[in-house]
Specification:
With 74 residues, the chain is α+β, with helices and mostly antiparallel strands. Helices cover 18% and strands 34% of the residues.
Length: 74
């Protein structure tokens, strides 16, 4: 599992998030506020090529979990 943060052209976040859902291996794609415009949850980092090819994507940052499990609040 990886998370990919995407920066996009101004006004392109919603369209990029929608297009990201069409990339094989993408599980979730949401447009958000903050320094990055779209957050993607994917099965593997193999999605990077497809995400970077989406028109409007200007930069990506890939986050790989440091452990195999995730911590969740009870």
């Amino acid at each position: 599992m990886v998370f990919v943060l995407l920066q996009t052209d101004v006004g392109a976040a919603a369209a990029v998030a929608l297009a990201a859902l069409g990339v094989e291996g993408v599980l979730v794609a949401d447009d958000v506020t903050g320094p990055y415009d779209v957050v993607v949850q994917a099965a593997t980092a193999a999605v990077l090529t497809g995400l970077q090819a989406i028109p409007g994507v200007t930069r990506t940052l890939t986050l790989t979990p440091a452990s195999t499990g995730s911590a969740r609040a009870a």
